[in-house]
Amino acid sequence: MAGTIRKSARRVTAADVAEAAGVSRSAVSRAFTPGSYLDDGKRRAILRAAKRLGYRPNAMAAILQGGASDLVAIFAGEMPNDFDREVAAALVSGLNAIGKWPLVIGGDEATARRALANVLRYPLEAMILRSGSLDEGVAKSCAKLGVPVISSGRILHMPGVDNVCCRNRDGMADMGRLLIEGGRRRVAFVGGPETFWSAGERRLGLVTALHAAGLTLSADAMGAYTVQSGYDAAADLLAGPPFDALVCANDAMAIGALSLLRDRGIPVPEQIAVVGFDDIAMAAWPAFNLTTVRNPIDTLVETVTDLVQRRVETPTKPDETIAIDVSLVCRGTH
User: Fold this and answer.
1) Which of 83, 127, 170, 171 could disulfide-link 293, Cβ–Cβ 3.0 to 4.6 Å?
2) What is the residue range of 50's domain?
3) Is residue 4 part of a domain?
4) Angle between helices 251-263 and 82-97 (to 10 degrees)
5) Does residue 133 form part of some domain?
6) Is the pLDDT score of 4 beyond 60?
7) Residue 118, exposed/middle/buried by CB under 10 A (0-12, 13-18, 19+)?
8) InterPro entries, from UniProt (predicted)?
9) What was the pLDDT predicted at 59?
10) Domain shared by 57 and 115, yes or no
């Protein structure tokens, strides 16, 4: 009938299954509890009734009775570029593979803080922090609640926090040396926001390599780790002193800078070399063929998920900081 409001179906309960199978409520609970003793005949009857009725055990009820939640929160931030999105997707898959169920929190910092305040009401087994700009307040809140933290966007020197980070300085220093060995002497840099820990580390690595060769940065600009910000920063730099190499703190900005130079008819790498950091999938596209530093996502995810498992198994284990090796990927823009 038009205008009739249809009521949603009532969730099937353990009591419904017990009645259908002719057993007690506690027998239904034992049937879905691994290792619990139950007569085989009763177990089969319960499982048949559960299948027929569409019953699934209430996970939250099991948690309240001392079961594991298998819930792991991932604070992914705004994910402004492909690398962040690739990491978030890989973390979800990696956690699923070890039987954990991720709650992904995105958005700007204000939105994320509201979401974090709510998600911390759930019985999390761990919190993974992916934003390099988030302050220590979230980690402190987790510590008060006994929720372990794995930080992979920045190093947090706090009790109960495990850190996973690539060798940002080493990777960018290697890139600087590669450019110097190729004859580049006027090197410009496009960094990220000052609040991004990785941006500072990468700039320091490049400056260290230049200083070792008796050189300094010819020009310096700030981007936002996005393609558009790299495009805009390259335009600003072209208005200043000339340079023969443009080092970008991530691939997204390098792709933006590369696009700007091509729009201006400036040959790459003949006149200006352009390099990035991360080695996102797009960097290998023939249209870009970008020289970069590989920040291996597979290794990052394996390390993070291993730390989650070990921290859950041994909550009192010593805190760890693990550095992930990076490597140069030489393509056609240097």
Assistant:
1) 171
2) 14-64
3) no
4) 150
5) yes
6) no
7) exposed
8) HTH_LacI (IPR000843), LacI/GalR-like_sensor (IPR046335), Lambda_DNA-bd_dom_sf (IPR010982), Peripla_BP_I (IPR028082)
9) 58
10) no
Instruction: Check whether the bond before 269 is cis (ω within 30° of 0).
Output: yes
3-state DSSP helix/strand/coil percent for the chain, to nearest 5? 45, 15, 40
Same domain for 232 and 90, yes or no, is no
Structure tokens at 167: 């060798």
Both tokens assigned to 62: 């099991």
Residue whose pair of structure tokens reads 């072209």 in the numeric block: 238
Which residues, other chains included, contact 222 with Cβ-Cβ below 8 Å and sequence gap of 6+?
Answer: 190, 191, 192, 193, 194, 233
Q: How far apart are CA 16 and CA 51, in angstroms?
A: 12
Least confident segment among 33-47, 59-73, 86-100: 59-73
- 59 touches 14 (CB < 8 A): no
* 203-261 residue pLDDT tens: 999 999 999 999 999 999 999 999 999 999 999 999 999 999 999 999 999 999 999 99
Answer for the pair 5, 17: CB distance below 8 angstroms, yes or no: no
Could you tell me if 172 and 189 lie in one domain?
Answer: yes
Q: Where are the beta strands (DSSP E) in the chain?
A: 71-77, 101-106, 126-129, 149-151, 161-166, 187-191, 219-222, 245-248, 273-275, 292-294, 321-324, 327-329
